[in-house]
Specification:
- This protein is α+β, with helices and mostly antiparallel strands.
- The chain has 4 domains: 144 residues, no CATH class; 80 residues; 42 residues, no CATH class; 43 residues, no CATH class.
- It has a 5-stranded mixed beta sheet, with helices on both faces. Strands 6-7 form a two-stranded antiparallel ribbon.
Length: 388
């Protein structure tokens, strides 16, 4: 076999999503930038593992004490990662309340699930039928009873058809275990996994054979033929997407500078942007017409289709008001939605009401955003320099 193990589920998924991204990371050893969500997830996983290993109480006081150890790099369970977790904590400490809430929820779930020993960050290596070994790290394992994978994001749909936990069950001979992804920011966090172990092993084995064959093609025809780019759903999470975009624009003859240092370059880049937006809109209209006539189609995990419009609900305001007017204040506030347009309409009819109602309004400026439109921003003196 040209493919040398052990391989992980994420490595196999990277090849499945985009062979070129796989080649960049695992063969060229290119630097794969880690995003904020990935770093936060790593920090949260480490804190949960440390909290469970120390049998921390699910309280704010116990969490505060634990974080003193994390900040100092003085951890008992995660010794190898102590320095990295301390660095991540110094970077993401503003997320203190969120991390605390997630950790306390994990502690409560752990105590609800087991009264015995639990294995944290369990590592396994096991050969697949093709001979390549698969490895994995399991967040939470009670052998042959429970396999949990902590998740700190919200994108639960991507895991509905993932073979990850089924392969973890196979790799640890825990075929009867309850397998679940635990989304710790959800009110109902446990998402049961029912992926077939047999199908998961077959999936991993087939991908290993595909990768091995790609190495053979690379020897004869070169890596670009063997590991083609596959633009699609995988692009959103790929650390190489900017590099890939640069390579693609060069092939298309699109000129976009690496940086802008003067107004002339800014104007040329803006002109390119307007041309590209026009082309994108044209492509969308053509695809919309095609899908309307021929139906949906899929490209590398992305579906192109005519989707139904968002569901709109119209409430009988008078009826709802009469029903809830005697509710306790807490329930009323949950249902109450005051928008500026409605308030302005009332003020127009009852001007004397304005100073009274506006005393209950606070204003905050949103984050500035880049965009282009016909109207210039306030306080801006328009440049005389233009481009044809």
């Amino acid at each position: 076999m040209n493919l040398k193990g052990p391989v992980s589920v994420s490595r196999l998924q990277r090849f499945e999503g985009c062979p070129w991204s796989y080649y960049k990371k695992y063969e060229l050893k290119a630097d794969d930038p880690v995003g904020e969500m990935a770093e936060l997830g790593k920090l949260q996983h480490g804190i949960i593992a440390e909290a469970i290993s120390q049998n921390c109480a699910a309280t704010s006081e116990a969490f505060d004490s634990l974080m003193v150890d994390v900040a100092a790099g003085e951890l008992s369970y995660s010794k190898d990662e102590a320095k990295e977790l301390a660095q991540l904590w110094s970077k993401y400490s503003p997320h203190y309340e969120k991390i605390k809430a997630v950790t306390i929820k994990a502690l409560n779930l752990w105590r609800e699930k087991t009264k015995g020993e639990v294995v944290l960050e369990k590592h396994f290596i096991k050969p697949l039928p093709c001979g390549v070994s698969l490895q994995g790290y399991i967040d939470f394992l009670i052998p042959n009873k429970v396999i949990w994978d902590w998740k700190t994001g919200h994108n639960w749909e991507k895991y509905l058809n993932s073979p990850q936990l089924a392969l973890y069950a196979w790799g640890t001979d825990s075929l009867q275990a309850e397998k679940a992804y635990v989304f710790l920011e959800f009110d109902r966090p446990i998402f049961q996994d029912n992926f077939s172990v047999k199908q998961a092993v077959q999936w991993a084995n087939n991908l290993c054979l595909q990768i091995d064959f790609a190495y053979e093609i690379a020897e004869e025809e070169g890596p670009e033929a063997a590991f083609p780019k596959r633009p699609g759903a995988a692009c959103s999470m790929c650390g190489f997407k900017e590099q890939c975009a640069d390579e693609t624009k060069d092939k298309l003859g699109v000129v976009i500078p690496s940086y802008i240092e003067d107004q002339e370059t800014a104007l040329e880049t803006a002109k390119t942007l307007l041309h590209l937006e026009t082309l994108v809109e044209r492509a969308k209209k053509l695809l919309e017409a095609y899908c309307s006539a021929e139906g949906a189609f899929e490209l590398n995990g992305e579906w192109f289709a005519i989707y139904p419009g968002s569901l709109k609900k119209e409430w009988d305001k008078s009826g709802v008001y009469n029903m809830i007017k005697d509710f306790p204040e807490e329930q009323l506030l949950k249902m109450l939605n005051i928008d500026s347009r409605g308030v302005e309409a009332v003020i127009k009819e009852m001007p004397f009401f304005e100073p009274v109602i506006k005393a209950f309004c606070t204003e905050s400026q949103g984050e500035p955003k880049f965009k282009h439109q016909k109207k210039p921003p306030e306080g801006y003196r328009k440049s005389k320099k233009k481009i044809a």
